[in-house]
Amino acid sequence: MKTAYRFAYVLIVLAIALNGFALTNGSSVPPVPPQPADSTSVSERGPVESAPALLPVLPKITIPGVPTSGNCCLYQVAKKFEGKRTVQMIGASYDCGQGAITSRASVTINLPLVSGGLPCDPQPSLIPNFSKLAATGTMIKRNDGFAHFLGEFSITNSGGTVLFKGTIETLDRLASHHFPFNCEACDLKSHIEGWLVGEASDWEILRCGP
After folding, report:
1. Residue 7 and residue 92: Cα distance in Å, rounded?
2. Rounded CA gap, 188 and 195, in Å?
3. Chain segment 106-118, per-residue pLDDT in tens
4. Among 142, 134, 152, 55, which residue's Cα sits nearest to residue 94?
5. Are 163 and 77 spatial neighbours (Cβ–Cβ below 8 Å)?
6. CA 147 to CA 132: how far, in whole Å?
7. Domain coordinates in residue numbering, the chain
8. 93-152 residue pLDDT tens
9. pTM of the model
């Protein structure tokens, strides 16, 4: 399944963060549209397994941290992009007893990036226009559109040089600007939030020194 989508802002903290996607040094994506809840019977849907047993140990992921000393700088960037997120279902769906059928999928993301302009992208050369965000990983998704994605990402310039790389984690149909702000529903459709945590290919990008 291929889905076109847009993504908005990027905020840099010690490196770069895309709408809360933090890229550290060393360095609404938006979503697979929700699928309507399936009203057909289990037999009509095909194989549905019972809820999976909990894993005894969750896999460990190491991500870059923030230096405990040194004069590190903060940057703000805003990038726009429109592209494809390819979702390939893996194995049989299963029932977790939540009123929605759950599935596992393999996800590939490829998005060209362009500046969002002033005032939110004051240093557009940090991630030049037509750089590319690429990511691959695994998604757990329900048929009501709620989904979690975890994978590895890279941001490369138009010449193919890697600017940033690290871990990306996102949630579909989850919004954080609800009560008390009351500006969006907590389960907003066609909406995604998340973060990137990674390393810059060049310390000079971040100007983090002794």
Report:
1. 30
2. 18
3. 999 999 999 999 9
4. 142
5. no
6. 24
7. 2-206
8. 999 988 889 999 999 999 999 999 999 999 999 999 999 999 999 999 999 999 999 999
9. 0.69
